[in-house]
Amino acid sequence: MITKYLHFNEHDLSLAGELIRAGELIGFPTETVYGLGANALDEDAVKKTYAVKGRPADNPLIVHIYDKSQVYDIAADVNDYAKTVIEHVMPGPITIVLPKQGLIKGIVTAGLPSVAIRMPESTEARQFLRAAAVPVSAPSANLSGRPSPTTWQRVREDMDGRIAAVLCGAPCRVGIESTVLDLSRTEPIVLRPGAVSAEYLSELLGIHVGVLTDPTSKVNSPGIRYKHYAPKVPMVLELDDDRDKLSAYYDQKAAEGCNPVLWVQNPLRFGGRNAVGMGINAEAAAANLFETMRKLETQYDFIIASFCWRKNTLYDGPASQGVLDRLMRACGHNII
Ligand code: AMP
Ligand code: MG
């Protein structure tokens, strides 16, 4: 199949809409990561999503909308917590999980009685969704297990020849996948940390919102179930920004004949060694996370990442839990 590369003009947007309604897959930008969109009401189209990505069938997709009213067509019970989130955080980098209506089939939700719904803030994403005129199911537009794409060029890398089209938009502002907030249980809980923090949601909803998986716990994290976001070369993670420890680890790897790289907050502290900046705060780290992973894996053969996210450090911010979660998964929980 020859993949079309489309732009944000009237002609290409209406073509993108036609392709979606004809059951084709389209890569499209959002503020979090690029998505791989299909008509959520077309079971055959949704089936292709799993095949093209090599995604396990028990990993559900998110249904994307362009108008808040669509929530009421898709979810069976929009409770008060959901109404508050819809009012204050949507559109934005958040996904809410609610009991589903019959319109959305089990293939989208991996057989679950609940459905995940997201309204992107990105105008490009919403232009596409409006042109599609149907709810669009989408996972991230990477091959399963690879770091999520945050530019259209990375979508091309993974999806060229496999899907009908890619909408070439801006690089993603947030850079990590949306916060997934489950509102289908008695108490709201974050299933996947993202740029909207559990702390913020606790304040907004007036109830403690926990995070299902403590990202530092090896046992609980779904990263054990599915290898996620992994670069092609081995990676370890250090959590204290301990210069001596990082330098010693690097020197050891170099002595073993590796060409390692330090991926740290301040590369200038590691003069003479390969070192790359992770970003000045958690939000900058999130924005560049997957793109840097994909760059480093082509230039080095061992990644030594450091992310110190304690209170009152530079990496203490709304996106810090999300960044930590992705780093933990990328290194396969290999903490040094
Ligand atoms: P992706 O954005 O590619 O990582 O895929 C969507 C993610 O959304 C899934 O891996 C789940 O973590 C989450 N998700 C989607 N639907 C549901 C659901 N019905 N219940 C719980 N989590 C969901
Ligand atoms: Mg994904």
Structural description of this entry:
The chain is α/β, with parallel strands linked by helices and about 325 residues long. The chain folds into 2 domains: about 5-210, Alpha-Beta Complex (DHBP synthase), CATH 3.90.870.10; about 235-330, Rossmann fold (3-Layer(aba) Sandwich), CATH 3.40.50. Helix content is about 30%, strand content about 15%. The protein has 11 helices and 15 strands. It has helices at about 10-20, 45-55, 70-75, 80-90, 105-110, 125-130, 150-160, 200-205, 245-255, 280-300, 320-330; strands at about 5, 25-30, 35-40, 60-65, 95-100, 115-120, 135-140, 165, 180, 190, 210, 235-240, 260-265, 275, 300-305. The strands form 2 sheets. The protein has an 11-stranded mixed sheet with strand order 1-8-2-3-7-4-6-5-9-10-11, with helices on both faces. Strands 12-15-13-14 form a 4-stranded parallel sheet, with helices on both faces. A hairpin with a 6-residue loop joins strand 9 (about 180) and strand 10. The longest helix has 18 residues, at about 280-300. It is globular. Bound molecules: adenosine monophosphate (AMP) and magnesium ion. Magnesium ion (MG) binds near residues 139 and 140.
